[in-house]
């Protein structure tokens, strides 16, 4: 199970991320663009995605990935944190962050990751 504290910690570790209220719920943004929201239930996470990816996830695992009717025209989906694989959830959150972040920031982030991977192999 992934916790809201883990989501908050990862989201805020991503460059340029700010936490702001979004209708009584914590949201994570870059330059005021939302990439994730923590609903009040403590069991789900809303992440920005593409409509194609959303279709794939919700088709493959409808018990984990959901699209409420109110999200039909939005490129967001709900992820059940109590059912999702923690590494997959981590990747979804990072991909959501990349979708709203400036390309230069994403490039620097990706290069830093590659550098850490090379160090780990040496």
Verbal overview:
By secondary structure, the chain is of the alpha+beta class. It has a single domain (about 5-120), classed as Aspartate Aminotransferase, domain 1 (Alpha-Beta Complex), CATH 3.90.1150.30. It is about 45% helix and about 25% strand. It contains four helices and six strands, in the order H-E-E-E-E-H-E-E-H-H. Strands 1-2-3-4-6-5 form a six-stranded antiparallel β-sheet, covered by helices on one side.
Topology:
Elements: H1 4-13, E1 17-22, E2 25-30, E3 33-37, E4 44-48, H2 51-60, E5 65-66, E6 76-80, H3 86-100, H4 103-121
Which keywords apply here?
6 strands; single chain; 44% helix; globular; 4 helices; 122 residues; six-stranded antiparallel beta sheet; Aspartate Aminotransferase, domain 1; alpha+beta
Instruction: Evaluate the radius of gyration.
Output: 15 Å
N- and C-termini, Cα separation: 33 Å
**CATH class wording:** Alpha Beta
Assign the CATH architecture.
Alpha-Beta Complex
Number of domains: 1
Question: What's a quick, concise take on this entry?
Answer:
The protein is α+β, with helices and mostly antiparallel strands and 122 residues long. The chain has four helices and six strands, in the order H-E-E-E-E-H-E-E-H-H.
């Amino acid at each position: 199970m992934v916790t809201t504290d883990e989501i908050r910690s990862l989201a805020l570790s991503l460059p340029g991320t700010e936490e702001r209220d979004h209708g009584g719920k914590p949201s994570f943004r870059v330059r005021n663009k939302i990439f994730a929201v923590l609903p009040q239930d403590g069991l789900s996470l809303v992440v920005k995605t593409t409509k194609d990816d959303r279709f794939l996830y919700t088709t493959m695992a409808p018990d984990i990935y959901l699209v409420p009717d109110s999200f039909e025209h939005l490129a967001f989906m709900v992820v059940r944190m109590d059912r999702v694989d923690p590494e997959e959830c981590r990747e979804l959150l990072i991909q959501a962050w990349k979708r709203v972040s400036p390309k230069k920031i994403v490039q620097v982030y990706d290069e830093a990751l590659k550098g850490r991977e090379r160090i780990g192999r040496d």
